[in-house]
Amino acid sequence: MEETNLHRIHTLSLLILTFSLFSTLSLSSFSPTDNHLISCGSTVDTTVDNRRFISDSNPNSPLLSSAQTIPLTNQSPSPYSIKIYNSARIFKKPSKYAFEIKEPGTHMVRLHFHAFVSSNLDLSDAQFHVLVNGYVALSNFSVGKVRDFVVKEFFIWADSDKIVINFVPAKKGNYGFVNAIEVISAPKDLIADVGFLVNGNKDEKFVGLTKQALETVHRINVGGPKVTPFNDTVWRTWIPDYEFFKSSNDLSKLMYFGGRIHYQIGGASREVGPDFVYKTARVITDTNGAVLNLNMTWEFPVDEGYKYLVRMHFCDIASISLGLIHFNVYVNGYLAYEDLDLSSITYMLASPFYVDFVVDDDSSGVLRVSVGPTNKTMAYGVDGILNGVEIMKMNNSVGSLGGKICAGMVLKSWPRGNIGVLVPFVAGLCLLLSLALVMHRRTVGMRNPVSWSKLPTEVPGVDLNHVNLHLSGKA
Asked: Where are the transmembrane segments (predicted)?
């Protein structure tokens, strides 16, 4: 019964948003310098959401090892299927695409997978590794029996003139595949270099986020419906939060805003989060003037053994005037942001703000975020608000997002395909290689010093006295 009610709520929310946001939604004209969209295995170009995906059968395709690959077409596609998922490129040997990069910096890499059956080949049987610019993006990856398409999104720093994507079958006799690839320059402010480190011991900042390989594992529109790439300025997908929301329905209510979102220079831009995210939220409101001493909590499944970048989006669409909302923010039970007062940061209502936290996995396989009242919360006010959450896995010490084996050993393992046996022997070697890379980057950094800002997520003019963080307590 509860699940049925949740679905009814989100169906209603979709109808409300269709009418209240359609006329006010204004997408920015973000035009990436590097914009490679590839339809793999297709003989013709394909258009999806007004974006043109180029066939990799073109002689100018970035695919370098076409002699070792096989184009495959779905002979019985659904009439409602997205066209880029009706073809695939099959890799029976290590193969790679190399994309020319005009502008160094963070790039979004999206890999599209759909396991269709064609010519007696069932793509759900594929098992393979994917390497991106020397990072292990996917290890022993298999789509399995998932009927829907799967999109894997990564943020990769490119400081050379190419981004190279390798596909390596997990073992001889197996194969890999991909349906479509996107390699796009990320907006300059999409990944800030500094985040708050949440470890429960002391106030720290994590510097160097832009140089980490990141994988998007969750991107949530809190209190609202699914947001598709068509309605996002950088073509992302945001899913509803009801699957992850763990608090009692009595604690919160959904909030919808039909007015204008005020984007400020230095604050969150439409590239950081679209209107559809900032115009919806969950809020805690007090009852009969009594402040509820309870939190709203979301729980997200994550892989153990990694650090995570947790980005939380806030936009005060609930208050009737400034200064009426104060609340605490918790990550994995630790107090991450105390007495968050959006008015003191944005100086206006309906103005987006986001904060980046870096947190270690606590070995539970679950990452929790919460918001709730503080001792400054006012009666008859809003006790907490959240508009969106993004969780990104960070590469480990050997440069991997999928295990303890570095990219070099994945390539050297072919054609033996005995990576599992090699683990205890090569993990140390991978660690040495990664340390050497870190030392090299530090040496380069000393030659080319970078001027760091105090906190990229701040709005200019914000007094750091307002950003009072305490990480020592448990919720």
From this structure: 419-438
Which amino acid does the sequence have at 228?
A: T
Q: Give the model confidence (pLDDT) of 345-399 as tens digits.
A: 999 999 999 999 999 877 889 999 999 988 877 776 778 899 999 999 999 999 9
CA-CA distance, 110 to 91, in Å (whole number)? 18
CA 97/CA 60 separation, integer angstroms: 12
Mean pLDDT (the chain) is: 82
CB 324 within 8 A of CB 381: yes
How confident is the model at residue 264, as a pLDDT? 81
Query: Strands 296-301 and 69-73, how do they pair?
Result: unpaired
Contact (Cβ atoms closer than 8 angstroms) between residue 348 and residue 357: no
Tell me the one-letter amino acid at 364.
Answer: S
Give per-residue pLDDT as tens, 14-67: 333 333 333 334 444 789 999 999 999 999 999 998 999 999 988 878 887 666
Instruction: Output the six-digit token pair for 418.
Output: 């005995």
